[in-house]
Specification:
Radius of gyration: 16 Å
Oligomer: single chain
Number of domains: 1
Structural class: alpha/beta
CATH class: Alpha Beta
Distance between the termini: 10 Å
Number of helices: 7
CATH architecture: 3-Layer(aba) Sandwich
Number of strands: 6
CATH superfamily: Flavodoxin domain
Largest sheet: 6 strands, parallel
Helix content: 25-40%
Low-confidence stretches: none
Order of helices and strands: EHEHEHHEHHEEH
Length: about 200
Amino acid sequence: MARPKVFVIFYSTYGHIHTVSKSIKEGLEKAGNVDIEVYQFPETLSEDILGKMHAPPKPDVPVITVDKLTEADGFLFGFPTRFGSAPAQVKSFFDATGGLWAKGALYGKPAGIFFSTGSQHGGQETTAFSFLPNLAHHGMIYVPTGFRNPNLFDNSEVVGGSPWGTGTVAGGDGSRQPNEKELSVAVTQGEEFANVVAKLAA
């Protein structure tokens, strides 16, 4: 019997979410019970605009298509916040999934979320919360992280993330990179999510 397949799909402007996605994948691999494919959301900004934003080149990761979604048994979506919700690139992609919605093609498939913000109070939880309607309308099963990783209780330093999912705090200028505690939460999220997907598939 083939193992269930999890897609990790991210949008990353400055690399923070891409870094977190690698630890998410590490956790999925650690569980050892799912197959994994990693994709990025399509970019909607021109190279000229991205250059003016001083955005680095996109990573060498394939771009997801709407039709490809039907091949997965579960999804972990990662993206930075834009005013407390998903960025336009992610919204635009989901706006194009109406055909899948009409067929119920994603119904019953589990999904989790990971995210980044510029500050501790920049929408770490609302980014996930405001994305839930996309999952609900498709009939997808939201799988939160909960407090499975003890670093979510750590108040000794800045640690992004919440029971809603893994999070990192990028800093106002993007100079802060995901730290070991945040990446540890990402590994936990990946591992626990894989176990849920495997149970549902069984």
